[in-house]
Amino acid sequence: MSLHYLIRQVHRWASIVFTVFFILVFIASMRPQPVEWVFYLPLAPLFVMLPTGLYLFALPYFQRARSGNKS
After folding, report:
1. pLDDT digits over 3-48, tens only?
2. Count of CB atoms within 10 A of residue 29's CB?
3. H or E stretch including 32?
4. Where are the domains of the chain?
5. Which residues contact 29 (CB under 8 A, 6 or more apart)?
């Protein structure tokens, strides 16, 4: 299993977890007295998605520079 595949899978699963947490926050915010810590739940997957997303964004540029293709 390559590192690229592992990072892509981590990013994919973190985005699914983020979506679920976001829906839970939306539901919790409709309650009369929402608990404050619920609003911080989506931050955990976002901290995982930031470096993996930046890596996946830059990956084609790294591969192009390694292959020597300038187009």
Report:
1. 889 999 999 999 999 999 999 999 999 989 888 889 999 999 999 9
2. 10
3. none
4. 3-67
5. 39
